[in-house]
């Protein structure tokens, strides 16, 4: 790309008046590639963005795996608690009847190893 610039100016040089100066030139447009530091900064930013995206993917997968594991563990804990309650309930019995002295009433037998802290 070339162009000719025509400059009409008045310059004062050593008390001389110069006017109507024509200057011819050729201007070439060149790509400004920058310096090495700018390129390194750009590559570093691109690498950081890629690393952050990969970290998001890995974190999301890990969260999903841990959530599923927590759900399975919660179900297992609930099943174990229900089993423990049923096992203890099998050792507790209650009936209506009379004792040896002929007194009628409700009788409760707690054969479990845990003490009953609530009044019956």
Overview of the molecule:
Helix content is 46%, strand content 17%. Strand 1 and strand 2 (16-18) form a beta hairpin. It has one domain (11-110). By secondary structure, the protein is α+β, with helices and mostly antiparallel strands. The protein has one helix spanning 36-90; strands at 11-13, 16-18, 92-98, 104-110. Residues 1-15 have low confidence and may be disordered. The strands form two sheets. It has a two-stranded antiparallel ribbon. Strands 3-4 form a two-stranded antiparallel sheet.
- Content-based structural category: alpha+beta
SSE pattern? EEHEE
Q: In DSSP terms, counting alpha (H) and pi (I) runs of 4 or more, how many helices?
A: 1
Alpha-carbon distance between the two ends: 103 Å
Instruction: Work out the strand percent.
Output: 15-25%
Q: List the strand order in the largest sheet.
A: 1-2
Give unreliable regions as ranges. Answer: 1-15
Count of the domains: 1
Radius of gyration based on Cα positions: 47 Å
Sketch the major β-sheet. 2 strands, antiparallel
The number of distinct β-strands equals: 4
